[in-house]
Structures are given as structure tokens and as C-alpha cells.
Amino acid sequence: MENSIAMTILIFLGVAIIMVPLGKKLGLSSVIGYLLGGILIGPFCLQLTGKNAEDIMHASELGVIMLLFLVGLELEPQKLWQIRKRILGLGLSQMLLSICGVFIVFYIAGFGLQKSFIISLCFAMSSTAIVLQTLKEKNLFRTVSGESSFSILLFQDIAVIPILALLPFLSASDKAYTQEHGQFLLHYIPDWLQPFTVIVAVFTLILLGRYLFIPFLRFVSKSGLNELLTAASLFLVIGVSELMISIGLSPALGAFIAGVMLANSEFRHELESNIDPFKGLLLAVFFVSVGATINFDIIASKPVFIFSAAFIVLAIKASVLFGIGKYYRMNNEQSFFLAFALSQVGEFAFVLINFSASLFLIDYQANSELMAIVAITMCISPLLLIFKEKVLDKRFIKQKSEENIELGIIKQRKIIIVGFGYFGSTVGRLLKANGIRSTVLDNDPDRVALLRSNGFNVYYGDATKPTLLRAAGIEEAELLVICLDDPEKNKFLVDYAKENYPGLKIFVRAKNRLDAYEFLNKKVDNIYRETLGTAVDMAVDILQENGMRKYTARRMGKRFMIIDKAMTRRLAREKDNNTITFTLRETLEREAQLLALDSISFEENHWSGDDEEDK
Amino acid sequence: MKKTLVLFAHPYFEHSTTNVRLLECYDDMDNVTFRDLYEDYPDFHIQPFRERKRIVEYDRIIFHFPIIWFGLPPLLKLWIDEVFDMRWISEGDQNILSGKDALIIMTVGGSESNYSKDGKYKTTAEELLTGLRVSLDINHIELKKTHIIYNADNLDDSQLDVSCQELTQILKVE
């Protein structure tokens, strides 16, 4: 069956929509769902894809490039520095040992020296997409095994870049270069410089990142149009990768460096939130197309070889990982998690294998075989994790509870402050003065630039966009501090956070008592009326001017605040049902009620205090 | 076990080691309400009526505090000033406090020899509590026991273990 590109994409997305939720039900990660979906529509099952599948696979490799850009964005140089030893130790040992193990086995099995080496490079990689997805789904990021997995993945992600740069040098034939897309820019570089293109390109990108990308994004953000920033983000990523292709280098490397260069900028979370949906979509299509291009004829012709290879690779990687886990003094449960979670061969292997094939380092036959092995390992490793959870964990339960206590790493709670105007910045400054770090979101580009130059951790973006909140890490955040000027936006954020992140503690700025009623009825406990404290301070000073002793005036002010807050709660409860907005008349009525209550409650003996711990 | 209210007051609790350990003794006890005054009233604005309403429910009050410059921590003194009422001891009025009993648990930085008539401070640690003792007495609160932990800034782990055992015993006083 031959389809138009649009039709093929439609089928791809359709099968993803059906298969991924099905896979989730069975406890499989989304990647497996995509792969199964791809196999289902592939030429060996329903035959819904035409010859377009491979073209689409190439087109959707842009998803992998975006993935690397996002990995770069996550890699703030400082963060990298903090966990450098773990990344280097765990990552390097995993890569080297896995490469050695796989190389020896394949070399003994009679593959050539070069071929075995390439195969071992590809197979040492684990799947970032699968593992990160698993960590996220099981909420394991902050555990020892989670952090170790992340460190190893990070090292692999970085290792891909030198490997991609290395492969062309392994290729004996010059044909490889002419195969690449038009490298017109290369001709303008003097011959003696050509061997240094990698270094030159990296430096050019660093300079571009410093002096062009950020001013460019600032310029665009001043227009205040969201869709323009999305366009600019895509332009940047695709532009950089095209630039790299045109000088004959890996586009993934370019995207990664561009990401790192922007990791420190105020646009980091905005870029993440803009690129992420495209990356997700393209990766989904990529995985489906990988599934669709698995050649079952080859598996059928050599089933013993393919399956035994897949299992040997899994066994080698798992035992290497288990050994590393033990060496780094993890307990059995953590080491088993590491071993099973990272034992599959990852999506970078697809890229590396295809790249090697395009360099004629391996032939078509081997290419298909390797792809099949990779896909099989990817399908098996989630099953291993299920096995670990269902069978092995029961034995470790004792150990686990001990580990939880020991694990109590005292970390400051993750705080997101939304809105950094006069109100929010006061909050942020007091926190910062006491060494409490927070992630700040604000949508005034000038203010963001100014604050950043003063060392604040501020990011540009519209915080009412869920994607930006996610990019800023709302999923791991414990406190959300909402200080926007616009009460409606504050209410929207409260609703959104309450609905999607019920565990999140919310601190909200309220314009006045009426706002406070609404927040109270939305079950927010920490409400700060921006006028209350200042107005009371003023009244206290006026009492002093009238001859009251300062201490007495201050006590009266304090008492007034306590009573006022308690009354606000009481009144909010009384009318919480159908009144969402107040008419002017109702507003006045409530003020009158308050005044009436004041005159009773200030008489000491009637004021017996509210038993709920109102402060 | 009597229904007990622990009033703990420590302005510099984050720098304390001894009191962190001692407070663990209250964990396993039944019928105990533990109140950390410096957490409850960080701005020193005590709500006396709320306090009075609560205090009625208890049979025993434990005052637990370090000596600060030879006196009670200021917030504990303020709590007593605000909550206790002179009218209760005037004749004819009903005193909500009478019939209760009390324990005092106090940590001091100095050694026992410094706190003696011939020592460095020429004053015993008990004498520093005169005001509190009279206040309890006049309200008909029976002071069951005063427990003083000396050298509280320099106790090692084994000494702390001993202190904790002692405190646990004292808390069992009927």
C-alpha cells in the first residue's frame, strides 16, 4: 500500500495513541508501546506503512537532536560540576567495561576487529528515553539508584558526541564524506583548517551562544508574542543542526552545545517548554518508525543468532552494572535496579548504527541484524524491571525500610516563585538573604535581564502556561509561591496546581479580602493579603500619634490582625457556596459585618480565640 | 498518667544539643501535649484567652527551659505574665489553676560547683527560680520536683544517655 506522507504520519500517530495507553495498562513504558505499534503497522504485520517509513524515520531523527538539545539545557555547568565525580566514575566504568565485554564476545564470535568495536560502542549505550521515563513514572529521581542511573545516562549522552565525531575517522573509504549532505561551507574553510573543524565549530557555537542567541531571544521576547518565541526556539535548534550538517559535523553535537550554552540563560525553561512537545511528538514518530522498520525476515532467518546475541548483550550489561553498583556500595535492591533498568541498548544505538551504515562501516545485513537486537533488548528490559519489582523486591523490603531512613539527605525544599515584581522580589530577596534558593518565573524581559545580572535565578516566561511550569520543575517542587499582580492569573494558577499537584504547598498573594475569600474556599491555607500588614502598621503609628503607648499600640495592631484573619475565615465559610463573585452591595454588607464583629470581639472577655490554630 | 502540658521555651534551640536529646524523652509518654512556645508565638504576641481555655484541661504542667543570663527565657516569663491573672488569687475568685501540679526541668551551662554559695556565681540554681516558685505556690500549684541539668553545653553522648534516663524516671513522678 502506498500512502502520502500525511497519511503515513496519521497512521503512525494513530497507532501510538492506541498502543501507548494499552502498554501502560500492562505496565510497559511508552517506548515499548511505540515500538509495538510500529511493528503492528509495519510490513510484516498489517502492512499499513509504505516505503515512507524509512524517510519518516530520518525526518523524525530531528526528535533525537531535540532530545540532545534538551539534555544540554539541563546541563548547567555548575550542576555538572557538583556531580562530576559520580558521572565520571559510574559513567566511565560502565562504558569501558560494557564496551570491553561486548567487544570480546563479538570478536570471539568471529566479527572483524573494526565491526566488533563499532558494535560494542553502540551496545554500551542505554536508553535515555526509556530509563528517564521509568524514573519519572516510579518517582525515583531522588533515590540513590535513580541518581546513579541519571549520572550514567548523562555520561553516555556526552559520550555519544565524541563517538559520532570518531566514527568517520574509522571509515576507511572517502565515499563516506561524499555521501553526506552538501557540505558547501567546508569548501570555504582553508585546507589546513579542515581537520580542526570540530574544535572550530564548537568554539563558534560557544561564541554564538554568548553573543547572538541570548540577545536574539531577548529581542524576540520583547514582542510579547508566545508563538514567536516558539518559532524562535525551533529556528534555533533546526538552524544549529543544519549549520552543523553543512560543515559536515553531527547535528546532535551542535544541538547539545547550543543547549549547554543556553542552560544558564533566563530562557532555559521557556525553551524547554517550547521544544518539549515537538521532541515528544518526533520521538514518538521515531520510535514507531523504528518498530516499523524492524526486519522480521532477518530475525526469522537467524533467530538463534539474534536472540542469543540480545540475551548475551543484556547479560553483559546487567552484570557490569550490578558490579558497579556493588563497587559503589549500593545495596542489592539498588544494584539490581541499576542492572535491570539500564541493561537495554538505547535509542542512540539506532542513530549510531544508521550513521555507521551511512559511512559503510557495516553492511545492510548487519545493520538490520543489529537494529533487531537493539529493539529486542529494549522490549525485554522493562519486563526485567517488572520481574524485579514483583519477585526480588519482596526479599529486600527489610533493607529498603532501613535505606529510607539513611537516605534522608537534607535537601532544601524546592521552591518556585511565580511573579517577581515588587511583591515577589521582596519574598525572594528575604529567602536569598538566608541562603534559600528558589526558581523564579517572570514575564518581563527587562526585569529578568536586570535581576539575572544581579545573580538571581530568574527565568523568562508566562507562568500560566502549564508547559513552562513543568519545565521549571513543578513536578518535583514542594512549595509554589504565587505573587502575580493579576488576581485572575493567581486564581488560575491555584486551580491548576490544586488539580494537578495536590501535594504541592501553595503560598498565594491576595489583593484584598475578597480575593482571600476565594482562595480560602479553594482550600488554600497560606494567603497573604498585600494591604493588611501595611495598613495595620499605619494604623498602629496613628494610634501612637494619638498618645497611646507604643507597646500597647503594637499589641492592639497584632490583636486586630489575628481577629481580622479569623473573621475572614469565618465569613468565607459562611458564604462559600454559590457566591463566586461579589456584587458591590454584598461587598459592603460583608464590610459591615466585619465592623460589627470588631466592636464585639475587641472587648477582651468576649474574645475567646478561635480553636483552629489561626495565626 | 496525668494529663500533662509541657511548656518548652528555648530561644536558641537550633544551637542546642542537650535539649534536642532531652525532648526525645517526651516522645513515648502518653497523655502529653508538647508545646514549643518559641514556635507558637514567634512574634511574642501571646493570646492569653486561648491559653487559659487550654490550660484548664491539664492536671500537670512541665516547665522545660534553659537558664538565659540567670533567668527564665523571656517568652516563658511573658507567657506567665499574660496567662496568669492576679484576680485568681484574690479571695472569693475561683482559681482555675489550683489543684494542678508542676515539674521544672532546667538546663544550665555552668557547673554545679559554680552554682553554690561559695562558687563563682555565689547563688544556687534553685534561687534563680524564686519568682516562678512563688507564682506556682500562690496559685496552689504543687511543685513536685525541680530537675537541673548542669554543664548542658558540654555533655558527651554517654552523659546525655544518663541524663535522658534520669529525666525519664523523674517524669514518672506521681
Description:
- The complex is a heterodimer of chains A (615) and B (174).
- Chain A is mainly alpha-helical.
- Chain A has helices spanning 5-25, 30-41, 52-74, 77-82, 84-108, 113-124, 128-138, 144-170, 175-179, 197-222, 226-246, 251-262, 268-293, 296-301, 303-327, 332-341, 347-358, 364-407, 422-433, 445-453, 466-471, 487-500, 513-521, 532-545, 550-574, 584-601; strands at 415-418, 439-442, 458-460, 479-482, 505-510, 526-529.
- Chain A is 70% helix and 4% strand.
- In chain A, strand 4, helix 22 (487-500) and strand 5 (505-510) form a beta-alpha-beta unit.
- Chain A is elongated.
- Chain B has a five-stranded parallel beta sheet with strand order 2-1-3-4-5, sandwiched between helices.
- Chain B is of the alpha/beta class.
- The model of chain B has no long low-confidence stretch (mean pLDDT 90).
- Chain B is 30% helix and 18% strand.
- Chain B contains six helices and five strands; from the N terminus they run E-H-E-H-H-E-H-E-H-E-H.
- Classes of the chains: A mainly alpha (615), B alpha/beta (174).
- Chain A binds chain B through residues 555, 558-559, 562, 604, 607-609, 611, and chain B through 43, 45, 47, 49-50, 53.
Give me some keywords for this one:
heterodimer; A: 615 residues; mainly alpha; 26 helices; 6 strands; 70% helix; disordered C terminus; B: 174 residues; alpha/beta; five-stranded parallel β-sheet; 6 helices; 30% helix
What does the overall shape of chain A look like? elongated
Major sheet summary line of chain A:
6 strands, parallel
Kindly estimate the percentage of residues of chain A that lie in beta strands according to DSSP.
under 5%
Tell me the strand order in the biggest sheet of chain B: 2-1-3-4-5
- Biggest beta sheet attributes of chain B: 5 strands, parallel
Helix-strand layout with pairing:
The complex is a heterodimer of chains A (615) and B (174).
Chain A: H1 5-25, H2 30-41, H3 52-74, H4 77-82, H5 84-108, H6 113-124, H7 128-138, H8 144-170, H9 175-179, H10 197-222, H11 226-246, H12 251-262, H13 268-293, H14 296-301, H15 303-327, H16 332-341, H17 347-358, H18 364-407, E1 415-418, H19 422-433, E2 439-442, H20 445-453, E3 458-460, H21 466-471, E4 479-482, H22 487-500, E5 505-510, H23 513-521, E6 526-529, H24 532-545, H25 550-574, H26 584-601
Parallel strand pairs in A: 1-2, 1-4, 2-3, 4-5, 5-6
Helix pairs in contact in A: 1-2, 1-13, 2-13, 3-12, 3-13, 5-6, 5-8, 5-15, 6-8, 6-17, 7-8, 8-16, 8-17, 10-11, 10-12, 11-12, 11-13, 15-16, 15-18, 16-18, 17-18, 23-25, 24-25, 25-26
Chain B: E1 4-8, H1 18-23, E2 32-36, H2 37-40, H3 48-55, E3 60-66, H4 74-83, E4 101-107, H5 130-138, E5 142-149, H6 157-171
Parallel strand pairs in B: 1-2, 1-3, 3-4, 4-5
